[in-house]
Amino acid sequence: MDTTVGPLGLTFREARREDLPRIVELIRDDAVAAARTGELAEAHSRGFEAIEASPNDELVVAERDGVVVAVMQLTYIPGISRNGATRLHIEAVRVAAELRGGGIGRRLMEHAEERGQARGCGLAQLTSDAARADAHRFYEGLGYAASHVGFKKPLAHGPG
Amino acid sequence: MDTTVGPLGLTFREARREDLPRIVELIRDDAVAAARTGELAEAHSRGFEAIEASPNDELVVAERDGVVVAVMQLTYIPGISRNGATRLHIEAVRVAAELRGGGIGRRLMEHAEERGQARGCGLAQLTSDAARADAHRFYEGLGYAASHVGFKKPLAHGPG
């Protein structure tokens, strides 16, 4: 993974176990996600371990002056449709609230595309809560088309 | 994977290499996807092999009387947000055109949820092209909420 320090003083790297409290803090620090993210707990640790164990998932942090200032999760989804393209699927994009508007998010998304290209992805995709009008303008400004409707459904825990 | 023959005479199983021509045919047989799926080619074979190699991806077909009548791809995405939930991410849902409206799609989606529950998923998610009004009613009828906007962006091939 590229760890070059760019013009905003950012270093991108895969998250480490000790980053997890800060990552949960970033994901929670958001009007839409606060209630559903939960306080740091065992479930987040299990999620972190499952990401680490997966060959197709990366939890990426951006660091500046030794502080994690942004996070995102990248999943590489192989497929048959779209002419057999691998998709770069992006979840949990967050920039520290006090630093938003300074270009970190744009640089983060550029890094996502670089990672996707390195994995041969033909398409990047993400969904954004319908309540996030600012985020929608942000993604459209980066060349994303709001071409799809995103559906979600909670699943009850099964026997597995 | 459940291979019980249910009330509609369907058997669900993981796709095999020899199913690929039929799968591409199903994915292409769709006004929205035809142009972008392409004719069966090496790219689809590579996609199939990448799905087979992934521990978090399954290409599922529904078979009736020895004929593949529906397909979908399931990806299990571990995560930190949503309280550490694993997501059941669904792509490329297709039912043979001549059999639509007979309940196969509903049974296919039930099977998706069963697979997600068996993998401990707390949430199912998918996106549907904004042009697919019928599909949106279908997913809403199954309990999905159209809560998100789905963004897509083609990626140019990088050096990787």
What does this structure look like?
The structure is a homodimer of 160-residue chains. By secondary structure, chain A is of the alpha+beta class. Chain A has six helices and six strands, in the order βαααββαβαβαβ. In chain A, strands 1-2-3-4-5 form a five-stranded mixed sheet, with helices on both faces. The first copy, chain A, is globular and about 40 Å long. The model of chain A has no long low-confidence stretch (mean pLDDT 92). Chains A and B meet through helix 1, helix 3, strand 3, helix 4 and strand 4 of A and helix 1, helix 3, strand 3, helix 4 and strand 4 of B. Strand 6 (145-154) of chain A pairs antiparallel with strand 5 (121-129) of chain B, so a sheet runs across the interface.
The major pleated sheet of chain A works out as:
5 strands, mixed
Distinct helical segment count of chain A: 6
How much helix, percentage-wise, in residues of chain A?
A: 25-40%
Largest interface: A-B, 80 and 80 residues
What sort of overall outline of chain A do the alpha carbons produce when their principal axes are compared? Answer: globular
Order of helical and strand elements of chain A: EHHHEEHEHEHE
Rg over alpha carbons of chain A = 16 Å
Q: Approximately what portion of the residues of chain A adopt beta-strand conformation?
A: 25-35%
Q: What's the layout of helices and strands?
A:
The structure is a homodimer of 160-residue chains.
Chain A: E1 11-14, H1 20-28, H2 34-37, H3 42-53, E2 57-64, E3 67-77, H4 81-84, E4 86-95, H5 104-118, E5 121-129, H6 133-141, E6 145-154
Parallel strand pairs in A: 4-5
Antiparallel strand pairs in A: 1-2, 2-3, 3-4
